[in-house]
Automatic annotation (TrEMBL):
Region annotation (Disordered) ranges: 313-332
Species in which this protein is naturally found: Allorhizobium taibaishanense
Keywords annotated in UniProt: Signal
Signal peptide: 1-26
Protein name as annotated: YkuD domain-containing protein
Amino acid sequence: MTLRPFRPTVIRLLSALVCLSSPALAAEGATRLPDWLQAHVGEGNGQIAPVVVERARALYLSKVKEGKTRNACYFAMDATRPNDVTMGPAGGRFYIICEADKTFRVISAGHGGGRNLGANANFSNGRECVRNFGNGLDSNLTAGGAYLTNEIKTSFKGYYRMASKQEAVLTRSFVQFDGIGETANARQRAIGGHAAALVSGVCMMKKPDSPYANRDGYVPRGNLVNYAAGRSDGCTSWSPDDAPQVLSMVKDNPTTLYIYPESRDIEAVSKELAAGRTPAADGVYWNSSCLKAIGTPKFWPKEKLEPIIAQFKADHPAPPPRPVPLCEGQPQ
């Protein structure tokens, strides 16, 4: 089912409730899914695959037990599903699960686009399905595994013109993810979650009264781009409509995020395909439509990928930075 967005007051009440219910919840264990949650389990549209919810719930309960989170809700993402930005239960692959009030919501989320380094290596991804995964620095890849949300930082991205021809400001909030195990370098990689919005085609506009103006009185101005249907630099990106709700849920109130697949899952699927078997027949999960689209998935470990990226940078040094041009009609 599709739920109305959670209000901040409701989130605070749920958080208070989970403080009372967490010990009992953790004691129950992760092996038994509640009946209400089991009703959302499956591989169809608007459902969460069994392995994804089981691992996400196990991670959440373990961190509740350790005292790392007291949030009423936890998150999961199935990056083997297609990036579907349709509204309602027909699409989406990012899951918001709140056991205290028995709510389940599915929203869209972007994935890491990867990079095409030509002769060095091509680990780029299409818009819809992910073939390449990895945890290498500067790889722009999604890395599956366990995360905890942490601090939120908000930054100014620029001005853009609205339909009313008025100038508006885009600020974007970013929640840092702290990884565990294979994803432990998430902070080093600046991996987190944010709205899929940016200002592109930037020029400098004279606006000395702006709090964001530089010392010469100029601010960046461009076109607002919503790339919810696109790719990211490895972060988890949500639509500009959904992002405020997700961010409000974790502000000063960390929770867990489990992203599927991990490297072990990618290896298992690859072995099944290499042996001429169908992964699903042997109980190895991957979304069938994306598996058909990508062929064989691949995980690029940082130990292998980072030297390749470093060599590419050495062979292709970045050009010196150019000043941002002034907007048309601006005084020199």
